[in-house]
Description:
The protein is of the alpha+beta class and 125 residues long. Helices cover 16% and strands 38% of the residues. A hairpin with a 2-residue loop joins strand 3 (55-61) and strand 4.
Amino acid sequence: MQKNRWILLLCLLSGCANYSASNTDTDTYNDTSTSEKLMTVDVGAHKVACFGVGPMQCLVVDDLLFYSKIQGFNFEEGYNYQLKIKRITVFTQYTVPADASLYEYHLIKVLSKTKQMSLLINEKI
């Protein structure tokens, strides 16, 4: 009986001995490398009210609210855009500040800019 307890104790201790720092996410946490991705996106003709750190106006990009800036892009209300942009990873999921994005966006090229057609409805027909 005593021998079985020693064997069980040795098995438990040997299982703990296999743990090492190389099995942790420290490499991911300390990863400061940046990655870049080229993207083509559609930007809607109007900004909409949204709430980030506080109330703000967001672009609508690919039919979703877009809370970040696109550096180098000057949005003009009333125009739909198709843009080629570069997304750069500037933080990891562990190092991103609470009020920031993992990414920065940079304009590469305005592929198209078209005036939004508005519907005029005349109530007096």
